[in-house]
Specification:
With 286 residues, the chain is an alpha/beta fold. It has 2 domains: 69 residues, no CATH class; 179 residues, 3-Layer(aba) Sandwich (Rossmann fold). 40% of the residues lie in helices and 16% in strands. The chain contains 10 helices and 9 strands. The protein has a 5-stranded parallel sheet, with helices on both faces. It has a two-stranded antiparallel sheet with strand order 1-2. The longest helix has 30 residues. The relative contact order is 0.18. The chain binds adenosine-5'-triphosphate, magnesium ion (MG) and zinc ion. The site of adenosine-5'-triphosphate has 19 residues, from helix 4 and helix 9.
Length: 286
């Protein structure tokens, strides 16, 4: 028997007689409709997988929870100097690929609460959206975690500092927060020197002014001055204001777990158009 697909014209149903009856489905579906359905499912699956990868990359950055909703767009500069700082950061992100290829970074320097970590999180998010896996680390916590591995074997953090020495983009938050020992300064030097030598881009956040930067170690500061442009963010802390800023408090995470697409399309069965649900394989997103 011949069927007529309203889209593809006459067709012979596929011969399924070789299959066990229980496995025979849609014996009279138009084969070209089935091809179109598979094609559409493939496209949906690809787009969904890409969204999942982008979201995974972003989750792997290690952006602290509070800053997952902080983007370059919801960083509102106050005053001309902050406006300029915001512009420099934006330009850095606009040319991100070129900057990372050159190993160029930024030193965001300013008093507490002026939005340095906020901006740095925004840079990581923008990077993830462009397929780049960055990494966030608070330097004091990295040093603590490193020290906690002393005398322990097989500790997850044993290779933390080595891991930070490479990688296309590292946000190194809170350097120079308290008077550190020679040993701590040595650790920072080793990290910065490795990233300097390997031309790996680094975005540093610090309360130190450019003139005070040498307190992290003269040779470390000297390398940072070559590998990262200084962005001064003057001003007073925004934390009290941020605490009551409803728009900021309720801002969603910059990236959301992608939703599995649920799309339907019409295919011809028995020569009749019939709706079917396209199937897309989901994976665990967290
Ligand atoms: N320009 C801004 N626009 C909107 N929100 C801001 C801005 N600056 C800071 N905030 C908000 O204020 C709070 C403090 O900002 P953030 O933690 O980034 O400051 P910081 O410069 O990193 O401070 P610290 O030196 O103490 O680490 C955050 O909630 C942040 O989102
Ligand atoms: Mg900070
Ligand atoms: Zn058809």
């Amino acid at each position: 028997m011949t069927y007529t697909c309203p889209i593809h014209g006459d067709y012979e149903p596929t011969d399924w007689s070789w299959m066990p009856p229980s496995a025979r489905i849609r014996t009279t579906t138009c084969p070209r409709c089935m091809d179109a359905q598979r094609e559409r499912e493939r496209a949906l699956q690809q787009a969904y997988d890409a969204d999942c990868r982008s979201y995974d990359r972003w989750r792997q950055c290690g952006i602290p929870t509070r800053y997952r909703s902080r983007t370059l767009d919801n960083w509102q500069p106050q005053g001309a100097a902050q406006q300029l700082a915001g512009k420099i950061v934006r330009r850095y992100v606009d040319d991100l690929e070129a900057n990372l290829d050159a190993g160029d970074g930024l030193v965001l320097s300013g008093p507490p609460g002026t939005g340095k970590t906020h901006l740095a999180a925004g840079i990581l998010t923008a990077a993830a959206q462009r397929g780049i896996i960055g990494r966030y680390i608070s330097w004091p916590s990295a040093v603590e975690r490193h020290k906690a591995t002393f005398g322990k074997r097989d500790d997850d953090d044993a290779e933390l500092l080595e891991d930070l020495r490479t990688g296309r983009l590292l946000v190194l938050d809170e350097i120079g927060v308290r008077s550190s020992s020679d040993y701590d300064r040595g650790l920072l030097f080793e990290l910065v020197d490795a990233r300097y030598s390997g031309e790996w881009s680094t975005v540093v956040c610090t309360n130190l002014t450019p003139a005070e930067l040498d307190t992290v170690g003269e040779r470390t500061a000297d390398r940072l001055r070559e590998m990262a442009a200084t962005v001064v963010i003057p001003g007073t802390s925004r934390r009290i204001a941020a605490g009551t800023d409803d728009a900021l408090r309720s801002a969603p995470w910059a990236l959301q777990p992608p939703e599995k697409p649920s799309e339907r399309m019409e295919i011809s069965v028995d020569g009749q158009m019939q709706e079917c649900t396209l199937s897309v394989n989901g994976k665990e997103v967290w």
